[in-house]
Amino acid sequence: MKRRIVAALKYILFLSVGLALLWLALRGLNFSKIGLEFREAEYFWIILSLVPALIAHVSRAARWNIMINAMGYKTTLGSTFHATIMGYFANTIFPRLGEVTRCTVLSRKQNIPLNGLFGTVISERVFDVICIGIIGFFVIIAQFSFLRGFLDKMIWSHLSEQMPSGTKLVTLLGVSALLAMVLFYLLLKISMPMIRKLSFYKKLKDLLLGFIAGIKTIGTLKRKKEFIAHTILIWFMYFLMSYIPFRAIQATEHLSLIDGTTLLMMGSFAMIIPVPAGIGAYHWIVTRTLTDLYGIVSESAASYAVLAHASQLIFVVLLGGLSMIIVMINKTQPLNVKIRSHTE
């Protein structure tokens, strides 16, 4: 009962954060102009953006197969695809529920140890973080002068007015950093015996070890080239999911390939925020990126964010519901019955 109450409170909190960000994204906008944008939008491009979404989902399931096969278990593309889609569907209800859902579904359908599947999911997340970092690096390199001007205008110019200049600033920052490191070290050393007794310490330690093991996983894969190819394909499809909808709205149709890559990076950061289906977080970050970075009118930027997000959300819900029905109806024998009984 206590766990259900905590889960309900977490859901309300995450949903409230998402709705607050959605309110920030849409605050002060002219909704009649947004309605006009919706009526004049070229929905062919929105529908077309669902094609790379489907390819990305299939490729992610195929990549997951490679990792599961490396553990010595057999899977089918269909079973991992349905589990993956059901995971995305679960994320629309409660953030981070998707990883648990897809691992549980596949474990029950194919008799694969649940902890092993969680390990593969952690590994996937490690590789995805690496991909986001690589994309971010190339975005910064490609748009360095543009981003530098933006940051100077929006952030540094305001901070510099309130900070001392020259040698005083360097000295102040150096001394502050040194004192902060010394204070952090002393507090950590004093409180470490007490921290080790806390329940979250073991979870944090296991998570860190899982991430390290995840990075090492690719070294044990027999199909490394196929794994890397699927990773590249997945993120290229994610890029197309951001870039193709540009053509749906007149105000964004001039944006370039590198602009689409920038939006992919910012949208990925938005989806990390633990709110159901990225609602609010995606809309706020994408809208601010389009308006502040590219000078797109706020109503047009918000229209793009709503159309791009809503189309993918509806697509996932429909696919997830279909996969759920197929999994419930399908009563085929698991592939790993003999393997599991042998290992036990």
* Number of DSSP helical runs: 15
Mean pLDDT, rounded to whole units?
A: 80
Unreliable runs: 338-344
* SSE series: HHHHHHHHHHHHHHH
Strand content: under 5%
| Major sheet summary line | none
What's the Cα radius of gyration?
A: 23 Å
Q: How widely separated are the two ends?
A: 34 Å
Give the helix proportion (percent range): over 70%
Which structural class is indicated by helix and strand composition?
A: mainly alpha
SSE order and pairing:
Blueprint: H1 2-26, H2 31-40, H3 43-48, H4 50-70, H5 77-91, H6 97-110, H7 114-142, H8 144-161, H9 166-197, H10 199-217, H11 224-243, H12 257-272, H13 281-294, H14 298-329, H15 337-343
How would you explain this protein's 3D organization?
- This protein has one domain.
- The chain has helices at residues 2-26, 31-40, 43-48, 50-70, 77-91, 97-110, 114-142, 144-161, 166-197, 199-217, 224-243, 257-272, 281-294, 298-329, 337-343.
- It is built from 15 helices and no strands.
- Helix 5 (77-91) crosses helix 14 and helix 6 packs across helix 7 (114-142).
- The chain is an all-alpha fold and 344 residues long.
